[in-house]
Design goal:
This protein is mainly alpha-helical. The protein has one helix at about 5-30. It is elongated.
Length: about 35
């Protein structure tokens, strides 16, 4: 199993992870209002 380098991982997944975290934070705002 090949582990991707941090640079490749950030380039491939950083935008998706950021979008996911924003979605989660928005959901938490609605939950805790």
């Amino acid at each position: 199993m090949k582990i991707p380098k941090p640079g490749q991982w950030s380039a491939g997944h950083n935008s998706h992870f950021r979008q996911l975290s924003m979605t989660v934070s928005t959901f938490e705002m609605f939950v805790f209002l």
